Amino acid sequence: MSERGRRREAPRLLLTHDLPVRRRRRARRRAVWFVLLLFAVVAAAVIVVVSGSSSPRSSDRSTLDSRVPAGGLDRAARHRTRHSASATSGIAVAPIQRVLSYTSYVRVGTARRRDVALTFDDGPGPYTPKVLAVLRRLHAPATFFVIGEWARRYPQFVRSEARGGFEVGDHTETHPFMSLLPAAVQWAQIVDAGDAIARAGAPFPHLWRPPYGAFDAASLQILRALGMLVVLWTVDTSDYARPGLHRIWYTALSGARPGAIILMHDGGGNRSETVAALPRIIAGLRRRGFRLVTISQLLANDPPPRDQPPARPLSGLAG
How far apart are CA 148 and CA 145, in angstroms? Predict the structure, then answer.
């Protein structure tokens, strides 16, 4: 090759020789950018998880107001004040407020006394008067967790519960799986049911039971803003499945312990087995030295421990 040809070929040879080096540099730059991008994504995820898992506080009201219908919390407060002043009920608010000062829920009380709380879900319904008749005849206190749409259909039964000295709690408007709903819909489920209870003649509720034991951080935030305590349960009699009165009776008694909350149902279907088992349950508990109380009485005498873990859903169970 001539000298002139070698000079013309040299740059091409140099560029070809340099090509692997340039590729390695580009690969290194891409790796650096990928690491930086991955770090940014991980940091954002950590921020979201930490903010989502933080415990709701009363100071979160401004945030909550942006997620629920305008004026919703104020409307609920007005209902509570107006109806609580006129309705007759045995509920004691002070123990609930004391418990709310350190926890959002109760599942079982301490063992200071041999108190047990009977609770009934999913009413009112056709079997509610029969349950009330047994409780009155045997002078047994109880707490009813009422569904809003059924309170509108049978307001006289809710009124009878309140006037009879029984406690009436909120069990949502239509019994949904709450943790699957956005905050605004959860708010409506809780407050609309409270409205129905208040309009039926009971106080706007201070107690709330989650259907299926399902709730999330948004539920707890709404409830704290409304001054409502989550009431879970210690013993599930599974009476909703109609296992027979002997099984209902046995489950209630075998699971009873000081501070226990027993779950039964007065609505949501045929509750004839529950009605039949109830006198035996009451008699059996008393023979074992237990005293029957409402939820507010349980909170006054046997409040939940101050060191109990954060609230966790009982999703998948009855409620």
Answer: 10
**Domain positions in the chain:** 1-54, 59-301
pLDDT digits (tens, 9 = 90+) for 110-155: 988 999 999 999 999 999 999 999 999 999 999 999 999 999 999 9
Choosing from 171, 265, 266, 302, which is the catalytic residue? 265
Token representation of residue 114:
């041999």
Which of 79, 83, 115, 121 is the catalytic position? 121
265 is catalytic: yes
171 pLDDT exceeds 90? yes
Q: Which CATH architecture has domain 59-301?
A: Alpha-Beta Barrel (3.20)
208: left (phi over 0), alpha (psi -120 to 50) or beta: beta
Is residue 119 helix, strand or coil?
strand
Task: Summarize pLDDT for 204-251 with one digit per residue, the tens.
Answer: 999 999 999 999 999 999 999 999 999 999 999 999 999 999 999 999
What value, to the nearest 5°, has the Cα angle with vertex 172 and ends 167 and 175?
120
Q: Is 17 exposed, middle or buried (0-12, 13-18, 19+ CB in 10 A)?
A: exposed
66-72: long-range contacts, CB 8 A cutoff, minimum separation 24: 67/182, 67/183, 67/184, 67/187, 67/218, 68/183, 68/184, 68/187, 68/188, 68/222, 69/184, 69/187, 69/188, 72/187, 72/191
Q: Above 70 in pLDDT, residue 312?
A: yes
| 65 carries an active-site annotation | no
- The CA dihedral of 27, 29, 35, 37, to the nearest 10 degrees, is -120
